[in-house]
Amino acid sequence: FDLPLLLVLLLLIAISTTTTNALSSSSTTTNSNSNVIDNIHNIKAAVLVPGFLTGAKEFEEMCDILTNEYGIPTVAVPMPNWHWLPCLGGRSARPMLERIDCTVQQLIAADGDTTQIGSQLFDYSLSDLWEDFQNNPGGVMNAGGTNGDVDSYPVVQPRGKFPLPSDTTTTKKKIALIGHSAGGWIARAYLSDRNYGGKVYDGKRYIHSLVTLGTPNIDAPGPAFDGIRWVNRDDASSKVPSLAVGGTGFKGTDWGSLTEGSYTFCSSDGSDGSGFTGDGVTPIQSSLGLKGADETLELPGVHHFCWNDVFGGSFVSPELTKDHREGAPWYGSKEIIPKWSHFISSRTTSANK
Questions:
Q1: If you write DSSP's letter for every residue of 84-145 in order, what string do you get?
Q2: Mean pLDDT rounded to a whole number for the chain
Q3: What residues contact residue 168 under an 8 Å CB cut-off, 6+ apart?
Q4: 338 three-class SS
């Protein structure tokens, strides 16, 4: 996104936030990972990581469908969209990683029972937000004195409280991780056993499979891609079985300024993205470019987001919103979910067994 669009999105967040708390598909198998691990129980449950400037609320219906229609109890990281603000401009993802780690471990401790993950799982105030916004390193302003290299980030502990369970059997169970848009590459950072900003999360201890939905997976110029360049030092295949999903059919020249600008933003060589196709936000070559993915899945005619279901969608992208309103699906639509959720089901047993 360019700066004017980012400012528009921030304005929409400020207005909408009232609380502080085509349908054929093809897949290609590129690798094969065994999911048989001695004494490890793969739970049929998942944590969903919302995309940039979105929160749990935007994914409630998607989680309900996964839980009630397709038997994969799923909870989105319980955060409002304004929790993203300290990460603006390509800054450290540590604030998001703390939230992911807390949610993942708490869901495992609950044996996949999503009803035990409340909306008030985190203790995070506006004063915490302000401190994080001032101190979170990296990004376009080189906060913390960094030069864009994630490995040079100073150790800055994110504000807030993100309680971890006392259950010592957590590492004997695993769940799935679903990342939408930017939530996908941050999920990959969570899986890594390398130091990120002063902490090693090594989330692969808790995750049996990863699905990325419309995630920008390939390197591109600019500070916003510092984190993606960092995660791309590893193959996904060295972490957990992974599926990269991308929509296609929305050409940069045909779907308005958001689509063309976003494709250009994600271009690996910084070139004009007008000739690209994708889901309206992420070009298909980036969505499917997850290094070492076990499978990739291309979904013709599938949108990046549920534009018509959120406040301000018609303002941000009138073209995509109109198409969604008229029935075009997105990754979280009921008829689309089983096209990718089987990847999770095939590696799990039912929760609470």
A1: GGGGTTTB--HHHHHHHHHHHHHHHHTTT-GGGS-TT-SB--HHHHHHHHHH--BTTTTBTT
A2: 86
A3: none
A4: helix
Q: DSSP letters along 52-74, please?
A: TT--GGGGHHHHHHHHHTSS--E
Query: What would the pLDDT profile of 218-261 be if each residue is shown by its tens digit?
Result: 999 988 899 999 999 987 767 799 999 999 999 999 999 999 99
Rounded to whole angstroms, what are the CA distances from 248 to 68, 75, 255, 259, 303? 28, 27, 12, 12, 8
Structure tokens at 151: 């490995």
Dist CA 228 CA 230 (whole Å): 5
What does the DSSP assignment read for 310-329?
Answer: STTHHHH-HHHHHHHHTT--
Gap between the Cα atoms of 259 and 5, Å rounded:
12
Measured between alpha carbons, how far is 175 from 41 in angstroms, rounded to an integer? 9
List, in order, residues 6 or more apart from 89 with CB less than 8 Å away: 139, 140, 141, 223, 224
In whole angstroms, give the CA distance from residue 220 to residue 229: 8
**319 Cβ contact list (under 8 Å, min separation 6):** 255, 256, 259
User: In this structure, which amino acid lies at residue 195?
Assistant: N
Give residue 182's Cα distance to chain centre: 5
The tokens for 206 are 């808790």
Q: Which residue has the tokens 């050409």?
A: 251
* 8 A C-beta contact, residue 25 and residue 302: no
**Which tokens go with 347?**
């590696």
DSSP character at residue 196: B
Of the candidates 78, 73, 84, 82, the one whose C-alpha atom is nearest the C-alpha of residue 56 is 78
pTM of the complete model beyond 0.90:
no
Query: To which residue do tokens 């944590």 refer?
Result: 47
